[in-house]
Amino acid sequence: MENEKSKRENKQRRRPRQLPKKNVAVKAEKKEDFQFKKDNLKIIPLGGIHEIGKNITVFEYGNDIVLVDCGVAFPEDEMLGIDLVIPDFTYLVKNKEKIRGLVVTHGHEDHIGSIPYLLKEINIPIYATKLTAGLIEHKLEEHKLKASTKLNVVKQGQTIVLGKMRVEFIRSCHSIPDSVALAIHTPVGTVVHTGDFKIDYTPIGEEPNNLGRLAELGNKGVLALLSDSTNAERKGFTMSESSVGEVFEKLFFNCTKRIIVATFASNVHRIQQIVDLAVKNKRKIAVCGRSMINVIETAMELGYIDVPKNVFIDIDMIKNYPDEQLVIITTGSQGEPMSALTRMANGEHKKVTLTANDLVIISANPIPRK
After folding, report:
1. Which of these, 16, 75, 158, 177, has the minimum number of CB atoms within 10 Å of its CB?
2. CA angle at residue 225 from 224 to 226, to 5 degrees?
3. Which residues are within 8 A (CB) of 193 and not within 5 positions of it... i.e. 6 or more apart?
4. Cα-based angle 237, 234, 292 (whole degrees, multiple of 5)
5. What is the rounded CA–CA span in Å between residue 150 and residue 142?
6. Are 59 and 192 part of one and the same domain?
7. Residues 165 and 90 in one domain
């Protein structure tokens, strides 16, 4: 065994020493990964551009379509006999097999009002935050579409996948809770759709706008920004919702008149402040106006309005209470011809007649019209 071992070692010693190889310059061919040309992203507004209301936008990439909002517009003076104006759904009907879903930014009528009419043409899934979904559900019940519609509740900060696009819901502030901006991530870039919004650093009942996430998206690079905010062309800023309560408190304090407050039905935070002051001043609340009743009922069911029992009374019961114990919340802050406040002012309302002992508070900013 020792002789065999020594033979192997001698054999290894006798092997010629191999010189290191010299570096040889070889021209490397640059190889690029082959990529198919990406499709174009189409952004097609079917309403809401250069008009108030009827907001609906199509995002189309390849064989995928994502819809954002589906609202109504209200008729102009010359539109006699017209109750609502809805978008033209012809393009959507022709491309219905491409539609992956409808994403809703918030619960105002100019963003959700046409949903039942679209669903009667095309049955597609809907994605919305809790309160927005609650308001949509009420419409689906009215049109007998609830059972056939897939209504998905999403949260602020959540991201969903719709075909080749991803939709991110970003917390935003508006005159209705649960509003969101959208980051629509596509293979060719990210589109930021703000929805309707206002910058409010001290909102009531919810957190401020998620400006940090918007900044992150901006740092990464944004393909397009679609932004909308009422009166954005005017200088200055919109006061915080929390500042309204101070004005209300002064008006309610030691008032012996019946108080009638006209505001937007969807402004749940404003309604909550009115409720709080009515309770504080030992007043009962009657609600007037169909849209106002619908929103308040939905908001109470979902926990967005907190009110003690027996504060709300039926409008038919107001004659049983003295003026100093009553608050009436009504629609008509924009002077709409058929609104409850306008009919009260014209003496045409069946339940409420304005008197000299009424304090009427119009709690809304004017909306610009064409």
Report:
1. 16
2. 120
3. 57, 68, 105, 181, 182, 183, 184, 226
4. 70
5. 16
6. yes
7. yes
- Whole domain around residue 213: which residue ranges? 41-228
Residue type, 50: H
- 329 CB contacts (<8 Å, ≥6 apart)? 261, 263, 271, 274, 285, 286, 287, 288, 292, 296
Give the other-Cβ count within 10 Å of 219's Cβ.
8
CA distance 53 to 181: 18
Residue with tokens 């109470």: 300
How is residue 118 written in tokens?
A: 């679209």
Please list, in sequence order, all residues whose beta carbon lies within 8 angstroms of the beta carbon of residue 240, skipping any fewer than 6 positions away. 200, 201, 202, 203
Q: How many domains does the chain have?
A: 2
Average pLDDT over residues 196-224: 91
Q: Name beta bridge partners: 238.
A: none
- The predicted-structure confidence for 113-125, as pLDDT tens digits, reads as follows 999 999 999 999 9
pTM: 0.81
218: enclosing H helix or E strand: helix 211-220
